[in-house]
Structure formats: structure tokens, C-alpha cells
Write a structure and sequence with these properties.
heterodimer, A: 245 residues, mainly alpha, 0% strand, B: 326 residues, alpha/beta, six-stranded mixed β-sheet, 11 helices, binds adenosine-5'-diphosphate, binds magnesium ion
């Protein structure tokens, strides 16, 4: 536990010192949401922009948290610091836990920034309760994304090997998770494939909550699925992250 | 190398001891006690028939070695010989394909958690966090061990490696040599009893190289066992024992003195009125004495010059001879 916090502190300290990475991970969602706004402004007035604002913000948090965490952890492997950590006695569960805690701080910041901007730019007037649920779901999604990043990074020997995973995560997330179309209109196999993605469950909640009259009542199990998703990834990652080559 | 009548070992011993610095307080307290525990008990490192294959490529082909406590043990070999592979296996970072190994009597894989407190490993690459300061790097790796006096130890090892005035600066502003020193500080912070240093002096300027070796000898004097790999053959002279690794096999295992004795000595005798004559003799000190008695003490001898093979020449010719045999 103590060593988990030591790793988390170090990860955070590194994030704070790495201005570019920090800037990118906070500014990038802001800029992209703004471009989205510009794009939606060109649409005919009948187009319902509000349906897309929060889901796109959630998607950005998901993707950036995943990518940053995966890349930084792979950099540890290529630099040899991961090996050095293990030889000094850090356990893999402590390394994973430390990364999770460290990156959660960043993901929380991203969730707040992206949601706030979406709400302000698109002049969404959601009730405080709705906003609270939206924040929780985006945050849980961020946890799952960080875990996904940790898990994927255990399969990459260098930064280059992370890149093939990017389209593998992005493309299905955009098309199969309910971000731009209703997943129930997909063929069965694609619908099932979508169920493997954490964004699908986050979207189930978000779409319901932003629907006029929507309520958490029937959809709260989706939140549990997100939690389970993170736990399963934790278990898998602590098996695939090799302490001994 | 030209030396007149001064036995090589005496000379190298003088060279070794002359600049031993005074900074030895760093290890004495704890290491002296633990050294007592181990002294005479067992060897620090024992390796039997160790093999490692990467796919179909055999990087280690049955390595045997035994390293006594408190020794500076040099693992020499050209690039690609398998030095890093052997060291990684010994520190428990790599699973060998076969064979057995013990470090301080413990199995590097099975007894990992116990062993990690007693060993230090300096990888061949810097393996540091570029964005963090030297102090944060040393403290991070030290904090894995739960030292009660971590802050003091961090200060001590930074002082020991001469980094105190740059301790707060980020590593990415450091030169290559400074990064090596930070890396060494990270290894020393928890007072390990066996150090594994993978090419610590590669691409380091001569001044720092000399200082590193002085430091290594100091640590050994305090009872720490040092296992140092290098591809620089002349560094063998600074070790107590040397193993030469070539294509995954140890082809020579000896003291530096023993290796030098396998070399040749040329005695060039200049007589008045005549030219030079050259005699090739063996490498033992007695051979030299005998040669001087027979060629050197005649009335008409003006000068005697003794030229010995350098350690590098000897090792390289031994490697070559091995290549012919294989
Ligand atoms: N992970 C690996 N996969 C495949 N081959 C490797 C791997 N690591 C090392 N080797 C090979 O094993 C041999 C020994 O490598 P290494 O131990 O790094 O040598 P040294 O440290 O003596 O230069 C080299 O031929 C190298 O190419
Ligand atoms: Mg090497």
C-alpha cells in the first residue's frame, strides 16, 4: 500500500513536471469540443446538437486517458525504469495501483474540464442531479480507460507497438458504442462486439440522462458494468505485466 | 607496455592504492556487520550450467562461475557476448532456460523479495526519470526498501557521487557521465551487499572512469561484492578476478595476474658494438629473472628492455585462439 502511494506520487510529480503532456491532455479536449461546436453551428437548426455534446466529451476523455497512460507506461519499459522498479522490490500490483491513482487525478481533471466546456458551449441546461450523474459516469469511464491503457501497455515492447491498438480502440468506439448511432440498429455481431467496449456502457447512461425526462432508475447497472470492467482489467493486467522477462 | 624490472602486480597495486580516496565512511557501518555474517559462509554468486535461449538463439550456453564475497569480479566480453543477459538473470529480471544460480545463497527468482534488499543493479542504460530531479530519482528507488533513514541516505549517496549541488535539477539537463553517477547513487541507496553493474564505465570520460574504479575498490574494501561487466579489456587489471565471456560461454576464468602470465615477454638486449637481440620468454616473473640472468648480465650489455604483452593483447589473443579451436 505504501509503495503504491510512492508510485502514485512519483507519477503525479512527473505529470506536473511534464508540461507538454499535461497541457496536451487538458487543452486537447477543450479544442476538440470547440471545433465540434463550430461544426454543429453549420448544421440546419433542426439538427439536435445537444445529443452529441456530452457523449463526444466522454469519448475524448476515454481516448486521451487510455492513450497517455499506455504510452507513459510503455516508456517506462523502454527506458528500463520498469525493470529497475521491479528489481528494487516494487510489485506489479503496486505499479498498476500507483499508475491508476496517478492517472485518475489527471482523468478527473479532464472529466471536469471537458464536461464544463460542453455544458457552457452548447448552453446545456441540465439539472444539477443530471450533471452529477454525468460526472460520475465520465469519471468511471476514465478509470476504465486508464486500466485499459495499463493493460494494453503490457503487450507493447516500445511506443511504436502502442499505435496499432489506437485504431482498434477508436474505430469500434466511434461506430459501435452508441456515440453516433443507435447500437440496436447494428447487426447482432457488431452489437455484441460493442458490448466489449467501456464507452458503450457510459453512453447507455449518458443518452438516457440527457433525454428529456430521463432517469437513472433502470440504467444504473451500466455503472456497475463500468466498475466491473476496471476490476477485470486490473486482474488481467496484473497477470500480463511481467516482472520477469 | 614497458616496465623495467618492476613486477606488474606491484605496479598496478601501487596505482590502485595511490588514489584511494577518503570517502569510505558511506558503507562501513552496515556493510561491515553484514559482511561478517557472510564471510566464509559461502560464495556471493554461484552459477551452474546456466543457459538462456531467445527463440532459437542461445545467448548463454552453460555458464559456470563462482564469485567470492567482497571481490571485485570483472565480466569481460565483446558486445553481444551475453553479459547483460547473465546479469539480468542474476538479479532476477530474466528467467533462464536452464541451470542454477545463487546470490548470497538465495535463488534470484524464488527468493526475489528477500534478495532485493541485499542487491543493487545498475542497468546498462541510464534507466532514470528524465523529468524528475536527481534527488527524486534516488529517493523513489530507495523508497521501495522502506529505509527508516531514507532522507539521510539520499543525501549521503548524492554526496558520495558528487551530485549534491545539482541534486535538485532535472535529469534531462545532465550530461551522460552525470546520469551514470545518478544511476550509481540509485543503486547504493539501500546499502546492498552485492552490486551488479552493467558496463558502468562505457562511454564515460577517462577522469570519471578512474573515479568510478576508485569508488568500486572502496566499496569492495568495505565488504561489498561487485560484479562488473565491461567490454574494455584493460579494466580487467582493476579487478580481483576476471571471467571472459564470448558467445555465451566463459572461455577464461583467472586473476588478472594469471592472465598476464599467459602472455609473452620480449627481452631486448643491446650489446656494445652489436645490434639488438630479442628473446621471447614466458610471462612468469621467474621466467624474466632467468632470462635476465642468462642474457642480461654479460659484460658487454649496454641496455636491457623488457616489453610485456598488455592484458588486452593477452585476452584478445586468447579469444582468437578460442575462435580457431571452436
Ligand atoms: N530480448 C532479446 N531477444 C532476442 N535476442 C536477444 C535479446 N536480448 C539479447 N539478445 C541477444 O543475445 C545476445 C547477448 O546480448 P547481451 O546479453 O545484451 O550482450 P552484451 O551485454 O554482452 O552486449 C546478443 O546477440 C543479443 O542480440
Ligand atoms: Mg550489454
Amino acid at each position: 500500500m505504501r509503495r503504491t502511494l510512492v508510485v502514485a506520487t512519483r507519477v503525479l510529480r512527473q505529470l506536473i513536471r511534464e508540461h507538454r503532456l499535461l497541457g496536451l491532455s487538458v487543452v486537447a479536449p477543450l479544442v476538440i469540443v470547440y471545433f465540434l461546436k463550430l461544426f454543429f453551428d453549420t448544421m440546419p437548426p433542426t439538427f439536435e446538437t445537444a445529443r452529441y455534446a456530452v457523449p463526444v466529451a466522454a469519448f475524448l476523455v476515454h481516448f486521451l486517458a487510455f492513450l497517455l497512460c499506455a504510452i507513459v507506461l510503455v516508456q517506462e519499459r523502454t527506458a528500463g525504469t520498469l525493470e529497475r522498479m521491479f528489481i528494487n522490490g516494487f510489485r506489479r500490483t503496486e505499479v498498476i495501483g500507483g499508475y491508476l491513482v496517478g492517472y485518475l487525478a489527471l482523468a478527473t481533471l479532464q472529466a471536469i474540464v471537458a464536461l464544463t466546456e460542453a455544458v457552457l458551449l452548447f448552453q446545456l441546461n441540465y439539472a444539477p442531479g443530471t450533471l452529477g450523474v454525468l460526472f460520475i459516469v465520465v469519471w468511471l469511464l476514465a478509470v476504465a480507460s486508464v486500466m485499459l491503457g495499463i493493460f494494453i501497455s503490457t503487450f507493447a515492447r516500445n511506443e511504436g507497438q502502442v499505435f496499432p491498438f489506437i485504431p482498434m480502440i477508436i474505430v469500434p468506439s466511434v461506430f459501435l458504442s452508441g456515440l453516433i448511432l443507435d447500437p440496436h440498429r447494428l447487426p447482432d455481431w457488431a452489437e455484441w462486439l460493442g458490448r466489449l467496449l467501456p464507452l458503450r456502457y457510459a453512453n447507455n447512461v449518458i443518452q438516457e440522462m440527457i433525454r428529456p425526462g430521463g432517469a437513472l432508475g433502470a440504467i444504473w447497472p451500466n455503472l456497475l458494468v463500468l466498475v466491473a470492467y476496471s476490476v477485470v482489467l486490473w486482474v488481467l493486467a496484473s497477470r500480463t505485466l511481467a516482472e520477469v522477462e | 607496455m614497458e616496465q623495467r624490472f618492476l613486477p606488474w602486480f606491484k605496479r598496478s597495486y601501487n596505482e590502485r592504492t595511490r588514489d584511494l580516496s577518503t570517502r569510505r565512511h558511506i558503507f562501513s557501518a552496515s556493510a561491515a556487520v553484514s559482511h561478517q555474517e557472510w564471510r566464509g559462509c559461502m560464495e556471493a554468486i554461484a552459477v551452474r550450467a546456466l543457459t538462456k535461449s531467445y527463440g532459437s538463439f542461445e545467448a548463454l550456453k552453460g555458464v559456470e562461475m563462482s564469485v567470492p564475497q567482497g571481490a571485485v569480479y570483472g565480466l569481460l566480453g565483446p558486445n553481444g557476448a551475453g553479459k547483460s543477459t547473465l546479469i539480468k538473470a542474476l538479479v532476477g529480471a530474466l528467467r533462464p532456460s536452464g541451470g542454477e544460480m545463487r546470490v548470497l545463497g538465495l535463488d534470484p527468482l524464488r527468493d526475489r523479495s528477500q534478495l532485493r534488499r541485499c542487491i543493487g543493479y545498475m542497468p546498462q542504460s541510464a534507466a532514470l526519470y528524465g523529468d524528475l530531479s536527481a534527488r527524486d530519482n534516488v529517493r523513489f528507488f530507495g523508497s521501495a526498501h522502506g529505509l527508516p533513514d531514507l532522507d539521510r541516505r539520499v543525501r549521503e549517496v548524492l554526496e558520495f557521487t558528487d551530485l549534491s549541488d545539482r541534486a535538485g535539477d532535472a535529469i534531462h539537463t545532465f550530461s551522460g557521465g552525470m546520469k551514470r553517477r545518478v544511476s550509481l547513487a540509485c543503486v547504493l541507496v539501500h546499502r546492498p551487499r552485492v552490486l551488479f553493474l552493467d558496463e558502468p564505465t562505457a562511454a564515460v570520460d577517462p577522469g570519471l572512469r578512474a573515479r568510478f574504479w576508485t569508488t568500486f575498490r572502496d566499496l569492495a574494501d568495505d565488504g561489498v561484492t561487485l560484479f562488473i561487466s565491461t567490454h574494455l579489456m584493460d579494466e580487467a587489471l582493476l579487478c580481483d578476478e576476471v571471467a571472459v565471456l564470448r558467445q555465451g560461454r566463459i572461455i577464461i576464468h583467472d586473476t588478472p595476474k594469471g592472465i598476464l602470465e599467459r602472455g609473452l615477454t620480449r627481452v631486448v638486449v643491446r650489446r656494445s658494438g652489436q645490434g639488438c637481440e630479442e628473446h621471447i620468454i614466458g610471462g612468469h616473473p621467474e621466467d624474466l629473472a632467468q632470462a635476465l640472468r642468462s642474457y642480461g648480465l654479460a659484460q658487454d650489455v649496454d641496455a636491457v628492455e623488457v616489453r610485456r604483452d598488455t592484458l588486452e593483447t593477452v585476452i584478445l589473443s586468447l579469444i582468437e585462439r578460442e575462435e580457431v579451436r571452436v
